[in-house]
Design brief:
Layout lengths: L2 H9 L6 E5 L5 E2 L9 E2 L3 E2 L9 E6 L7 H4 L17 H12 L6 E4 L7 E4 L5 H18 L5 E3 L9 E4 L6 H4 L13 E6 L2 E6 L2 H15 L3 E4 L2 E6 L3 E3 L3 E4 L5 E5 L6 H6 L32 H4 L2 H4 L17 H15 L8 E4 L10 H8 L6 H18 L4 E7 L15 E6 L15 H11 L5 E6 L13 H11 L5 E7 L10 H13 L5 H13 L3 H17 L17 H17 L4 H20 L1 H10 L4
Helix pairs in contact: 1-19, 4-6, 10-12, 14-15, 15-16, 16-17, 17-18, 18-19
Length: 636
């Protein structure tokens, strides 16, 4: 059992390297059903490298620190000369449109290591679209070793097929007329061809950026699996079939609050748009600086809005039972005036201000208790009435202000006979769930019932879910399949607009943090994808030949947490039955096989060792019990 300790020390070593390996990873697949591969049915394929077989390039990098404007210098960006004096620029446009009407069988973006394509997009006044074009050029070069030139929309189109990025240019309305941009929302986009030309455009610049990342990822096969590990196919041929796709995310707000995956470029690459809490203090690069804040301020703040430090001595009646006197008229006016001053300094029209109870219990005062009794015994009633009233007062001064309220712990149950205005959002936080099962499982019926109850009262709900064991981020927490099932169910609730997953927000090396983030990010856009297929794709890319053994370990732990009737909570003790000697012994042998499968690959081996930390951790904490069981089993 001493071998289990090795992983803890090995994982702490600094590993800085790049790895490239010939691999048969280019295969037919289906990017809408979570299957591996980057030659896609009905859309396109990347063919064999004439220099010898199919190649995959795998690179491990530090967190990106190069600003977009510096990146621009790293590859050829040229400007097409303007039309000669006296020439009507519209004639050049007309000529381009005639070329664009040509029907094609394939778009041969790269052939024999060369490209006829030029990138055509917005000028630098649109930094996010400009960055999207840069990213397209960068990763096409990474895939094909071919430079792609770029020019801005004010110049004449080249006499060549184009990769047109964004709606802020002079060609797109003629090429693909009738796009209903408003229906795309902030993040949706279209990917279409017009003859040999490829168009990627969103309603908003962020949508265009996501369209480029979707194309590079789902269609061409670039996989941003972690902030430090990107898998890039490599081929001298890139050919896609005619395409006409529209993609709109199922969840408007998408955030996984995990330190291991907090890198902004990584989150943008995986089409996650949330930025809250201490992340808002970090300056974003201009090219990706377009984030959604689920709730300005972030949380347990009623005694910050009505300052306990300021009023506790002069007005002790404002504070009752550990919270506020929510039905007190003076408290409401103080709160409204405080919020007006706070919100004046924020982008309040584009973000919700979240009002939440303090993170502890409550002993309601008489007025609150009477209001609770009048609304079905739901303790959420007084705070909901408080937020509605205070929000209405603020909106008289600041029209357009929006508010979110937490439904959490004692306020999770929805009230009866109350309504919620359309400028409010309810943030349901099912912290009392049994995470051994999905949220909609019979074992979580009260949770499911309350979420559905809130959906009857409002048009806007965001889930604040809990993805890890907050008692120990490295402890095995087998909830991967349950999370997928929960997201699929939440997606069936029309009022469910966002997903915030609280994970290892203040610590690194959390168990499967990258895997959870990557799988959930895909399900947020398309909940119909198969969770197991997504997991298997990640394991293949992130662990290489060790992937099957990691998958066997995941499946074993998923089965055991159910069969042993263990209960996964936000703080699951290490003595839970699924973390028994038998299972940890089986896990040890699977990790041995996984490490041996990648023994000569330091990158994949390091990824395996990170998984092994959790097994080592359990063994160390339960060493006395395990030693006795090992002795009984005749294991030395």
């Amino acid at each position: 059992m001493g071998k289990w300790i090795v992983g803890i020390y090995a994982i702490g070593l600094s590993v800085s390297c790049a790895y490239a390996e010939d691999a048969n990873i280019i295969q037919n697949g289906d990017h809408e059903n979570g299957k591996a591969g980057w030659g896609f049915k009905g859309i396109g394929k990347l063919v064999d490298n004439p220099k010898g077989g199919k190649r995959a390039k795998i690179e491990e990098t530090e967190k990106p620190s190069i600003k977009p404007e510096i990146i621009k210098e790293k590859y050829a960006i040229t400007t097409i000369p303007p039309a000669p004096a006296g020439q009507d620029n519209n004639k050049s446009i007309d000529g381009a449109l005639k070329r664009m009407s040509k029907t094609v069988d394939n778009l041969n973006i790269v052939s024999n290591g060369k490209t006829p394509y030029k990138i055509y997009s917005s000028k630098a006044d649109f930094p996010i679209e400009f960055h999207a074009a840069e990213e397209m050029a960068k990763y096409l070069k990474e895939i094909s070793d071919v430079d792609f030139t770029y020019f801005a929309y004010r110049e004449n189109p080249a006499s060549a097929p184009l990769l047109i990025i964004g709606r802020n240019n002079q060609l797109i309305d003629e090429l693909v007329p009738g796009i209903e941009y408003d229906k795309l929302g902030d993040d949706g986009f279209i990917i279409r061809n017009s003859g040999p030309h490829l168009i990627i455009a969103g309603n908003k610049p962020r949508g265009t950026l996501y369209g480029v990342y979707y194309f590079l990822d789902r269609i061409l096969g670039v996989r941003w699996l972690s902030p430090h590990f990107t898998k890039i196919p490599n081929s001298a041929e890139i050919s896609i079939q005619p395409i006409n796709e529209t993609h709109i995310p199922r969840f408007d707000h998408r955030q996984i609050f995990a330190d291991d995956t907090s890198d902004e470029r990584y989150r943008a690459h995986n089409l996650l748009n949330g930025k809250t809490h201490h992340w808002t203090s970090y300056k974003s690069p201009a090219g990706i600086n377009s984030w959604i804040c689920l709730g300005l301020d972030g949380g347990h703040n009623v005694q910050k809005i009505v300052s306990k430090e300021k009023y506790s001595r002069s007005h002790p009646e404002y504070f009752t039972g550990g919270q506020l006197a929510f039905m007190n008229e003076e408290v409401r006016e103080v709160a409204a005036q405080a919020l007006i001053e706070m919100l004046k300094r924020t982008d309040y029209k584009n973000n919700y201000y979240k009002i939440g109870q303090m993170d502890h219990g409550w002993a309601p005062d008489a007025k609150c208790k009477a209001f609770i009794d009048a609304h079905g015994g739901a303790w959420s009633a007084p705070i909901l009435d408080f937020v509605k009233d205070v929000g209405s007062r603020v909106r008289k001064e600041l029209p357009g202000a929006k508010f979110a309220q937490s439904a959490y712990q004692w306020s999770f149950q929805p009230p009866e006979n109350m309504t919620i205005p359309d400028w409010m959002m309810i943030c349901v936080a099912p912290i009392k769930s049994n995470y051994t099962y999905p949220l909609q499982a019979p074992e979580n019926d009260p949770i499911k019932s309350d979420i559905e109850g809130w959906a009857k009262l409002t048009t806007k709900i965001t889930i604040w879910d809990y993805l890890t064991n907050f008692g120990s981020y490295i402890q095995p927490h087998p909830n991967l399949y349950q999370l997928g099932d929960s997201v699929k169910w939440l997606a069936t609730i029309p009022q469910m607009k966002g997903y915030f997953g609280q994970s290892s927000y203040n610590g690194n090396y959390a168990e499967f943090a990258e895997l959870r983030t990557w799988v959930l990010a895909r399900l947020f856009w398309n909940p119909s994808l198969e969770t197991k297929a997504l997991i298997e794709e990640f394991l293949q890319g992130y662990y290489g030949d060790a992937g099957p053994f990691i998958g066997e370990y995941i499946d074993m732990m998923q089965q055991e947490v159910v069969s042993t009737k263990s209960k996964l909570q936000t703080r699951t003790p290490v003595a839970q039955p699924y973390l028994c000697f038998k299972n940890m012994n089986r896990a040890e042998h699977l990790m041995d096989k996984a490490e041996n499968a990648v023994i000569n690959n330091p990158v994949f081996r390091r990824h395996v060792q990170k998984v092994r930390i959790g097994i080592d951790y359990v063994t160390l904490l339960r060493r006395a019990v395990f030693a006795e069981e090992a002795k009984k089993a005749g294991i030395d």
